[in-house]
């Protein structure tokens, strides 16, 4: 054996002289996890009692010491069948076991950490430093052994994940100082494949898109990010991202001096059919504006909250719930008028504002959505909508109508 490559970032694999040998080690999850643990603690003797605590705690087994010896013996035998030199990496020593790295052994985790250490000591973004950053991007293909949920592995994974984000953020700051915004965009897109929720990376990407006159792309990224937060987490994006979006809108309007150009930009920004769909932060500002203008307006403004309820015994699967919410949003938007507004408030709720004139029963309009449009398309008996409606003028008094 001349070369051993161990991959742990993104997935686990052992390659001897360029050939994957992981399949020869059997399909025992505990055996593979034990091997991963020893490799991550390379050149350190791990006492038997600690390994037993980690891998057999809570197991009802009469002789865990014997189980450990048997597992190590089988693992060493499997390694020997691949290459005799490979089995010599797994040693018994001083009442414990260790993985000893021989010459020609490369482990991506330690290579990654070493590269991060090198760039942290660098000053300016010299060509050599840039090359180190690019190697870091290439090596970190994902979190360490993502299919495992062991506590010790999770701690190591979180540490490496944070180190990656800090290092890439430093790289992005250097690129920004050099005004290399196209490079910033490329690096951000790569980093977001690792962590699509990271606030700083998303802000850097939208900022670079803005600097390269790709404001529309920045708008689209913000909307996609907002949908992602609602669908996966049930919350709005971080405050700094929302503030960036507001500034982007202001900058976009301020850059136009011709009124026809402004009108064209505004008309092109959103679909003109159906209700206006917006982020909740924008919905809130529009609501506050209507409250201010209430005394001067001849229109009455209704605020409604439509909630998705589960009447069954089994909780909704996240994907199923998201599909129901998406269908409901389509129905609300298509059923209401251009001047009406709707925003997703959380994973199971939508906020709606309806400006109505005297004599128009806005409550009946919304009830029709609940009774006919939605239940006509959603056939699951466990899905029920709950609707609360209040006149904005009397909202302070807490008067509202409610229906299911």
Structure overview:
The structure is a single chain. With 404 residues, the protein is α+β, with helices and mostly antiparallel strands. The protein has 3 domains: 4-107, Winged helix-like DNA-binding domain superfamily/Winged helix DNA-binding domain (Arc Repressor Mutant, subunit A, Orthogonal Bundle); 109-254, Alpha Horseshoe (Serine Threonine Protein Phosphatase 5, Tetratricopeptide repeat); 276-403, Alpha-Beta Plaits (2-Layer Sandwich), CATH 3.30.70.270. The chain has 15 helices and 13 strands. The protein has helices at residues 29-40, 48-56, 64-82, 84-87, 108-120, 127-139, 151-177, 181-192, 199-211, 215-232, 239-254, 259-269, 280-293, 318-335, 362-377, and strands at residues 4-7, 13-16, 19-20, 46-47, 90-93, 96-99, 105-107, 276-277, 300-310, 341-346, 349-356, 383-391, 401-403. The strands form 3 sheets. The protein has a 6-stranded mixed beta sheet with strand order 8-10-11-9-12-13, sandwiched between helices. A 4-stranded mixed beta sheet has the order 3-2-1-7. Strand 1 and strand 2 form a beta hairpin.
Across the major sheet, the strand order is 8-10-11-9-12-13
Tally of separate domains: 3
Over all CA atoms, what is the radius of gyration? 29 Å
Distance between the termini: 70 Å
CATH hierarchy: architecture of the largest domain: Alpha Horseshoe
CATH fold-level name of the largest domain: Serine Threonine Protein Phosphatase 5, Tetratricopeptide repeat
| H and E order | EEEHEHHHEEEHHHHHHHHEHEHEEHEE
- SS-derived structural category: alpha+beta
The CATH superfamily of the largest domain is known as Tetratricopeptide repeat domain
The CATH C-level name of the largest domain is Mainly Alpha
Quick check: average pLDDT?
83
Mind summarizing the main beta sheet?
A: 6 strands, mixed
* Uncertain ranges: 395-399
User: What is the share of helical residues?
Assistant: 40-55%
- Total beta strand runs: 13
Number of discrete helical segments: 15
Relative strand content: 15-25%
Shape: elongated
